[in-house]
Design a protein that fits this description.
The chain is built from one helix and two strands; from the N terminus they run ββα. The protein is low in regular secondary structure. Helices cover 14% and strands 9% of the residues. It has a two-stranded antiparallel sheet. It is elongated, with a radius of gyration of 16 Å. It binds zinc ion.
Length: 64
């Protein structure tokens, strides 16, 4: 009883933190899926637009 792979429903899904829409795993995310928060580059850019109240000076630092 094999099911044909009709669509991406067998793949992991997440909800975009910007637009709230569900999006499915993609090949390009195979190495960083756990860190993917946005469904698209558009949403990623929107994140950069919004100001953080906590971050008034300087740019994002990679060091944590
Ligand atoms: Zn989105």
């Amino acid at each position: 009883m094999k099911r044909p792979l009709r669509n991406n429903s067998h793949l992991p899904h997440k909800l975009c933190v910007i637009c709230g829409k569900p999006f499915a795993w993609r090949k390009k995310w195979e190495k960083n899926w756990e860190t993917v928060l946005y469904c698209s580059d558009q949403c990623r850019k929107q994140k950069k637009k919004s100001k953080r109240p906590n971050n008034g000076n300087g740019s994002d630092s990679i060091d944590d």
